[in-house]
């Protein structure tokens, strides 16, 4: 069965973006970009909220046509166009580039998607991740900690009254100071309470 993999960049103080949605503090160099390309290429699909999807769709479909684009950008543009994408939105009317619009996070529908053949599913966006976490649907966490304190903004994880047990899998330090922390759900720990409980 496919797994849902939350894959997000975060500041050392726990924010995914600044108060005005700034992400200019991300330290993505060629090494880290190649790593992202390798990992995302393995996915069988991407799960995003509307805001994340529209940001991606506003740049990546034609990013490889810019003569100044790096090899890593050209490669990711092609990966992004081809990979199946599921955008969760109540308002989005139309989406191109191999994208399916999904109106609600319905746990049974997500589980059915996980049972389809193919690679794991990459989950992005804090709001959508929070909804998946409420329904106990995230199997793996890949958090890329950037060496910066931004002071305020949108936190990666919402407040919760229920601990979620995790098992350490891997860490990796990149040359630019970014550190990957990878965890899986700990099947021996008590499950988080579902939003339906």
Could you characterize the architecture of this molecule?
By secondary structure, this protein is an alpha/beta fold. 26% of the residues lie in helices and 26% in strands. The chain has helices at residues 30-42, 50-57, 71-82, 107-115, 126-134, and strands at residues 4-11, 15-17, 45-49, 85-88, 99-102, 121-123, 140-146, 154-155, 166-173, 179-185. Helix 1 runs parallel beside helix 3. The chain is globular, with a radius of gyration of 17 Å. Mean pLDDT is 92; it is low at 192-197.
Radius of gyration: 17 Å
Strand order of the largest sheet: 5-4-3-6-1-7-10-9
Question: The biggest beta sheet, please?
Answer: 8 strands, mixed
- What portion of residues is helical? 25-40%
How large is the count of helical segments? Answer: 5
Keywords:
197 residues, 8-stranded mixed sheet, two-stranded antiparallel ribbon, alpha/beta, disordered C terminus, 10 strands
Brief rundown of the structure:
This protein is an alpha/beta fold. The chain is 26% helix and 26% strand.
